[in-house]
Design a protein that fits this description.
The complex is a heterotrimer of chains A (340), B (316) and C (332). Chain A has 340 residues and is an alpha/beta fold. Helix content of chain A is 37%, strand content 23%. In chain C, α5 runs parallel beside α6. Classes of the chains: A alpha/beta (340), B mainly alpha (316), C alpha/beta (332).
Chain lengths: 340, 316, 332
């Protein structure tokens, strides 16, 4: 598997009347072909902004001001709008949270499906329609030949999300960004959509960035996970290591605060006190400082970095608690480099 | 859909009936009557009474209305009290110029306003947005008579580029170019108001649509900004635009009263003022009826266009 | 909840509750059909317990909850509370009973008047029901704000100055102002972030103990319902599918829909991702045109001919289920 995407310390800022607001800061992760990474975190943690930054779909006042986004050796952070237009919907496509509002209500399903196909794959009108019907069948839409001439309001939320998936995958993208694709759906429909995404992933070897706040969805879908808090990645590792051996106090708090149906009857939830700091006044040191049960004096003033520790798989954490392990890891790898 | 249209037309009949009753009453309540205006001031009361009797004006109002209605149902709009010509003929002579003037004004106004509104929305808070929005406020708020007199002063009496009024040069050949020359100034005045109003609706409706999720989807597909704006966004912002057009259509008949007066344009506006001053009941009733029909027709057209523009709207 | 249920008198009894919304068409608005949002729902609520109501969108759980406090006028059925039938009393009488019945909404922000200070918003119900003077109300506001964990100096702030979690605390505080006996919680944590959800759920649990409250807890998130409920009602298309203690619902579900619903939840454990998952096909049918027979038969993997013909009755003593072939009998 070769490297497909490498996001390196990007910073996304929004220009406002009251000056610039940083909503994503030093976010890094990478992704190989066919791999799925989950960005997980609560609202305002910057997971959606990160994905919109990759696609250049931020509002007009937002832009990536630092760092790089290497996609097949092109730096998307520096790409022009014209270059991005060739990539969007073709090499990288995206599905969104709200299937009810993500489709244009005044254009038919077929119209919306075929315009991307015709644009990127240079199909004729009739070829594109035939291909679109094929795509609809692939995502499990019954009566695809009839549905293609319908307007979105005739379809249920689950069906619309299937249309969105068909649309996103029609040009065989190398990377699919799915921003909370099942959050607005009922559980039985969510199960259907996740199942479908797994099936299509296997068939097409598409890499996926899946954005979610639901650790259940993460466990179900991810190869690796980046836990985000207040615009930063605080922990990144493969999915098994994360659930077996979570390290960052925020990750731990998140896992313990979710009421799950497999929890024992009388277990009391541990809640994380307080709330997420606003982007306008981020703490200088660790951003989790005032909610963290292990906060130390230095966490207030000093900024922790995302650093690797020794584990079964690659595992990095942004927390001073693991400083010794991080140092050990560095030493070991420095030695390795010297010896090689 | 067809059923809906038929139903709407059936509902229109009692509405029209009500409109004529109200109009008839209001006109009759106004002081003075046609006889006062048409006979020689030195006529004796007996002569006046005789003329009134001959015209049927001495009968009770409801009898007069009934007579008018019966004639209307026979397709007869009566004769003008002041010129003695058939009303239909007078109306015909004046409808053309007004429809020409207002039609051109509406088209010019829209052709300028709709693209400008889109540009303003796309470039919200830019200098072009500020300038266009400023002009649109000017267009909406400046009175037609004032702007009319202003352009006459500048372009007709000072610069001598265009004639001061009327539709054709007196004794001229009535050619297209001659009419066009006469059209420019009144169209300028009317289109300013129409366009100013439209710009605001297009801008706000576009702004609303540009923030929608499905436009982000369209952009994520790699579509060009041109397609996003003109295919995906414009169709969705049509509903408010259609509403404004629906309100504007009746202006084709009655929108230019002041402007026609200022430019001495021989249209329905001028005719309306003349009929009022001469208490010409039959002509006034005909103009009112025509206006009422246009409003009802415009409303129906608006509703039909809604369903065409937005597939979620269905009448059944 | 230590006594056996049949020895306790219910606080509220819902009997054959129906809420139909007419579908109107044509110029004269002729009623051509009904959306059966709630269709013959019955259950009892005992003092001090939490009754959870779960189901997917369109199952009628919110309409049921709103009917209990007469935010909806029921089409038919009875709601017996303190000897009175809430479904059939006048709005004036209902107003008096509102002090005992309160509701908390999903989106606390849209249910708080943006132009009023929190202190005034909270004092409002007391003053409206003429239950306290201004000073007394003020004292009470301080007290309740402390109970729900809001510093009392926040009294002078406006709703937009609070975060989502704090707003839900305000929603809870407002419901508590009149010392109600029963609180309907309509998706109270669905709009909140997970870490905040836990805070609010714990708060609700603690308040229940200290103030001896009874809850009807409506949510689509099964985890939260399990955490807080003593008994659970599972609804589908306006009907009750299953009603049992929380433990029975989760460990011994009898209705195939309950089983499928539980199974559809993704488990936060990657080692279990390859378990045999039951994924059911299709969408929830429209409540304007529900299937004949058992409403679930169109998606039920075990449906037989009788399910398509005859709607099953809700039967059982403590563990009620509406299915022709409940799970334990199916296996037997």
């Amino acid at each position: 598997m070769s490297e497909l995407l490498k996001v390196d310390k990007i910073k996304t800022e929004f220009q406002t009347d009251k000056g610039p607001v940083t909503s994503v800061d030093e976010v890094s992760f990478d992704l190989k072909e066919g791999e799925t990474i989950c960005l997980v975190g609560e609202s305002g943690c910057g997971k959606s902004v990160t994905s919109l930054s990759i696609m250049h779909l931020l509002d007009r006042n937002g832009s990536v001001t630092e760092g790089s986004i290497l996609f097949e050796d092109k730096d998307l952070a520096k790409a022009t709008e014209a270059q991005m237009r060739k990539i969007r919907g073709n090499d990288i496509s995206m599905i969104f949270q709200e299937p009810m509002t993500s489709l244009n209500p005044v254009l038919t399903i077929g119209d919306q499906l075929t315009e991307g196909i015709r644009l990127h794959m240079k199909y004729s009108k009739s070829e594109a329609k035939k291909y679109a019907i094929e795509m609809l069948k692939k995502v499990g839409i019954p009566r695809a030949e009839g549905i293609i001439d319908e307007y979105p309001h005739k379809l249920s939320g689950g069906m619309r999300q299937r249309v969105m998936i068909a649309m996103a995958l029609s040009c065989k993208p190398k990377l699919l960004i799915a921003d909370e694709p099942t959050t607005a759906l009922d559980v039985t429909i969510q199960a259907q959509i996740l199942e479908l995404m797994k099936k299509l992933r296997e068939e097409s070897n598409t890499a996926i960035i899946l954005i979610t706040h639901d650790l259940g969805v993460v466990a179900e879908m991810a190869d690796k996970v980046a836990v985000m808090y207040a615009g930063q990645v605080v922990e990144e590792t493969d999915v098994y290591t994360l659930f077996d051996n979570p390290k960052h106090p925020y990750t731990l708090g998140l896992m313990e605060s979710i009421p799950h149906i497999t929890n024992p009857d009388d277990m009391r939830l541990t809640s994380i006190p307080g709330s997420v700091p606003s982007a306008r006044n981020m703490p200088k040191g660790c951003r989790f400082y005032d909610r963290c049960p292990h906060a130390m004096e230095r966490c207030l003033a000093e900024k922790p970095e995302l650093k690797s520790i020794e584990d079964k798989q690659a595992h990095s954490i942004r927390c001073f608690l693991y400083e010794n392990e991080e140092k050990d890891y560095e030493k070991k790898h420095a030695e390795k480099e010297v010896s090689s | 859909m067809l059923q809906y249209i038929i139903r709407r037309i059936l509902i229109a009949i009692p509405v029209l009936f009500g409109v004529t009753v109200l109009n008839f009453l209001i006109i009759n309540l106004a002081p003075g009557n046609p006889v006062d205006m048409m006979v020689n001031p030195s006529a004796t009361p007996a002569q006046l009474a005789a003329t009134k009797h001959a015209l049927g004006l001495d009968q009770p109002v409801w009898v007069q209305y009934w007579n008018w209605l019966v004639q209307l149902l026979h397709g007869n709009l009566g004769f003008s009290y002041s010129t003695r010509e058939p009303v239909t003929q007078i109306l015909m002579a004046h409808v053309g110029p007004t429809v020409l003037l207002m039609g051109v004004s509406l088209i010019v106004g829209y052709l300028i306003a709709i693209p400008l509104g889109i540009i303003c929305a796309r470039k919200q808070n830019s200098w072009i947005d500020y300038i266009v929005t400023g002009f649109s406020f000017f267009g909406i708020s400046v009175p037609h008579f004032f702007l009319g007199l202003g352009v006459i002063y500048v372009f007709a009496s000072k610069l001598l580029w265009f004639p001061t009024g009327s539709m054709n040069t007196l004794g001229g050949d009535g050619s297209f170019i001659d009419t066009f020359n006469h059209l420019v100034l009144p169209v300028l005045v009317l289109a300013t108001g129409i366009g100013g109003n439209m710009v605001r609706y297009v801008r706000s409706s576009m702004l609303d649509v540009l923030g929608k999720d499905y436009l982000r989807t369209a952009k994520a597909k790699g579509l060009s900004q041109f397609l996003i704006t003109n295919k995906h966004a414009l169709r969705n912002s049509l509903i408010p635009i259609i509403t404004v057009i629906g309100i504007d259509i009746p202006l084709l008949i009655g929108g230019a009263i002041v402007t026609e007066q200022v430019f001495q344009w021989p249209g329905l506006g001028l005719l309306t003022i003349q009929s009022i001053t001469s208490r010409d009941y039959s002509t006034l009733m005909a103009i009112n009826l025509l206006a009422a029909c246009t409003v009802l027709f415009a409303n129906l057209l608006t509703d039909i266009l809604y369903a065409v523009a937005d597939p979620r709207i269905r009448y059944d | 909840m230590n006594m056996p249920l049949d020895q306790v008198k219910p606080l509220l009894q819902v009997k054959h509750l129906k809420k139909y919304y007419p579908i109107k068409k044509g110029v004269i608005s002729k009623t051509v059909g009904y959306v059966k949002a709630v269709d013959d729902v019955s259950f009892d609520i005992y003092p001090g317990e939490t009754m959870g109501i779960v189901g997917e969108s369109g199952c009628g759980k919110s309409t049921t909850g709103r009917s209990l406090v007469r935010l909806e006028d029921p089409t038919a059925g009875q709601i017996i509370f303190q000897g009175k039938d809430l479904a059939n009393i006048s709005h004036k009488e209902m107003r008096k009973l509102r002090t005992d019945l309160q509701i908390i909404f999903q989106d606390p922000y849209s249910s708080l008047n943006p132009r009023k200070r929190i202190g005034d918003l909270l004092a409002e119900p007391l003053l409206a029901h003429k239950l306290a003077t201004k000073e007394e109300a003020d004292k009470k506001v301080n007290e309740i704000m402390e109970i729900v964990g809001l510093p009392k100096q926040y009294k002078n702030r406006y709703p937009h100055q609070f975060s989502g979690g704090q707003r839900q605390r305000i929603g809870i505080a407002r419901a508590l102002m009149l010392r109600p006996k029963l609180i309907i919680c309509d998706e109270p944590v669905s709009a909140l972030d997970v870490s905040i959800q836990a805070q609010v759920l714990n708060l609700l649990k603690d308040l229940q103990k200290s103030l001896n409250l009874t809850y009807v807890f409506i949510a689509h998130g099964l985890g939260a319902v399990k955490y807080i409920s003593d008994r659970i009602t599972v609804m589908y298309l306006g009907k009750v599918m299953e009603l049992a203690t929380t433990r029975d619902i989760f460990e011994n579900p009898k209705h195939p829909y309950t089983e499928i619903l539980l199974n559809a939840y993704p488990i936060p454990n990657p080692h279990e991702r390859n378990r045999n998952q039951m994924v059911i096909e299709g969408d929830v049918p429209s409540p304007a045109n529900p299937p004949k027979g058992c409403v679930f038969h169109t998606r039920c993997p075990f449906a037989k001919d009788i399910c398509r013909e005859k709607a099953p009755e809700l039967t059982g003593k403590a563990h009620l289920v509406a299915c022709h072939f409940p799970i334990d009998e199916r296996n037997a």
